[in-house]
Amino acid sequence: MEKCVDALKHNFAGVRTGRANPHVLDDIKVDYYGVPTPVTQMAGVKVPEATMLVVEPWDKTMLNPIEKAIRNSDLGINPSNDGVSIRLPFPAPTEERRRELVKECKAYAEEARVAVRNVRRDANAKIERDEEESEDDVRRDQAKVQKLTDSYIKKIDETLKAKEAEVMEI
């Protein structure tokens, strides 16, 4: 269940809000001497201001390939290369775009809830298969699993609420 919440937080990190977030680059890979390497492992990523990311590659020959990979990604950001670093301006999303992002976040949260419920189902099935437990023990263990499930669903809802507030913030 903890992994479900961690996966949700990872998905939320990739949702682009009006603020610059270095985690949006986590899934972008660049061919570095024949090996697909994440941008974050081959460059320093800085946030000099709330709406700007600066990517400074350690190997300056990788400046153009990194810029090309960012441009070809689905981020919707147009990078600018000044010969030393790559600047990524994050424009503030429109009201309509923010609502779409909230819908995307809600979909991620629902996926996490389903995953937690699947873990609950598997745990309950395992409890029922245990032949050495009495009916009372089975009910008690299932109640514990349900209580744990409820606490994780609550964590997911709180995480969603915080992300919604961040996305809708102007």
UniProtKB/TrEMBL annotation:
Q: Where in the cell is it found?
A: Cytoplasm
Q: What is the first-listed, main subcellular location in coarse terms?
A: cytoplasm
Pfam families xref list: RRF (PF01765)
| CDD domains linked to this entry | RRF
Domain Ribosome recycling factor, chain residue ranges per copy: 8-168
* Keywords carried by this UniProt record: Cytoplasm, Protein biosynthesis
What this chain does, per the record?
Answer: Responsible for the release of ribosomes from messenger RNA at the termination of protein biosynthesis. May increase the efficiency of translation by recycling ribosomes from one round of translation to another.
The UniProt similarity line reads: Belongs to the RRF family.
Q: What is this protein called?
A: Ribosome-recycling factor
- Origin organism is Kribbibacterium absianum
Q: Which gene encodes it?
A: frr
